[in-house]
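Hi R.,

As promised, here are both runs. First protein below:
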Amino acid sequence: MKKRASGNKFLKSLLLLCLISICMGAGFIVWDIYKPKTAALVRVPHIIWPDSDRNEGKPFTTGFDGIDISAHQGRIRWDSLEKAKPWLYIIYVRARGRKVQDSLYGYNMKQAHSRGFKVGSYHFFNMNFPVEEQYRMFTRMTDHEHQDLRPVIDVEQLSLADEGNEHLKDSVMRFARLLEKHFGCRPVIYSNQNFYRKYLWPEFNRYPLWIANYSRVPMVKDTRPVLWQRGDTGHVHGIWTYVDIDQFINGGSLQDLLIPDYARRTIHIDLMPDYFRPKSAGISPQAEVSHLMIGLE
């Protein structure tokens, strides 16, 4: 009798342990469904690289309006960066590179917000991923609460299959229209001057354009770029590596990048948690996202 009682006690303990494990697993699944989707809330460990200013002794860049930052810049001394405000007007922070999420995205977002910056998102368009997957990933990742600026689509590469510019134009246009429906306004198109001329002109001429040319002010027939990426060797306070430099041109200003007030009041199905999302709207979140755009108020 004692052996039987002991055996029953062991079986009950085993069943209880299994029940606890099941409950913990279910709890994790529920948490995963309802946890915040934006990477802006990610905490990162203390960053010490670089430990010295690699541009020390070189003159600081002046006469610009914006910069690009990412994990490539390492730790940014934000208190010092504020000294650049007489020049600095907008900042671009990378959220994701071609294959992996930028490790400092959340940290840089938090630091920028604490200093009164406005925010928008920047996407590296990858022709080797379906448009719908990229759209799904991008809208799940962006910080909608602080999304003040139009999203940006960075277009600078063809597919590995080299399917030509018509296929590229069609894919980028589908992505742009999805973003326009989601955010309520047209996105900004980023590309370098030669690539835009060869592969994107003229279908996107009426979109807000951000064009890179490291030798001179960009000129593209029948367009009016509002932002110029003029170089990648900028030196600014608080950043101890080289950084991309951007400047408004052709009368462009922050107003050209802001999401209009009427668009901000729109709520879209993509903002709903997955649990409440209709099955027809579900898309596998396997895509590539890049950059985050932040502008000073």
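And here is the second one, sequence first, then its structure tokens:
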Amino acid sequence: MAIKGIIMENTENEIVETQEITSFNRKKFKENAKAQLKDRKKIPVLALLFSFLITSLIYIPYYLILASTTTGSAVPTESEITKAYGILFPLMLLIVAITSTLNIANLSLHFKIFKSSAKVTFSDFVSSFSLWLKGISATLVKSMYLYFWSMLASLPVLIISLIITSLLPKETSEQLVFTIAQIAAFVSYIPCFIILIVKNYQYSQMMNIIADNNSVSSKKALDLSSKITKGYKKDLFILDLSFIGWILLAFVTFGIALLWITPYMSLTKINAYDFLKKSYVEKLKSEEAKI
């Protein structure tokens, strides 16, 4: 399937209250999100409440087992630690699988709200569990790429630190060598942190692309996300910063406000994604016209 076809499939928005956006306009994205959620907040809130409850339940055994290996008067033996982590690893995989499934299901529900003015039901959310493999795959692919870039960013600094320590006189104290190694490790975090931010925004539209078009593979979604976010990473970063007030409200309410804030933030970002998608298609058309 051509890139343009993948991007443009399923793009119709039937909600008459929303505005056509011709530039990256945070205010209009938010206005559209509010219009799309008007009188339709109940189901997204219930879906999120269900997700939070399930996520909380699966984390309880994880933290109980983890606590059993790090607390108590007796130091756990090597066999006890091995046994505990033998349980924790598959449990962590289960947590990733369930949270990824819930994330893609919630996002698909929000896309249904975005694309149509019809009422949504809880079954719309449940039916999206069928995308569980897509959600898990996208999460793992994005995580692997971010890990690769973080390692690549820190590698030069670590190599330089090894060279410096190898050139030190043999009589150099171990404390000085250790201090140099610590400084190098700290310095390596800076490019690593910057690269992670940039790449996170570069791959930020993966889940949106998959929720918008279920036939797209995770690798293709990653490639498309890289293309449509080109030149807009700063705008996406500022869009996230604009939600700081809402995040603080969620913190004050011990996370309860997130049940209402999250759908609003998600729909705002879906509107931003729709703009990025259409802008990229216009760019492709413009390039084709020049040929």
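A quick note on the second one: DSSP finds twelve helices and no strands in the chain. Let me know what you think.

Best,
J.
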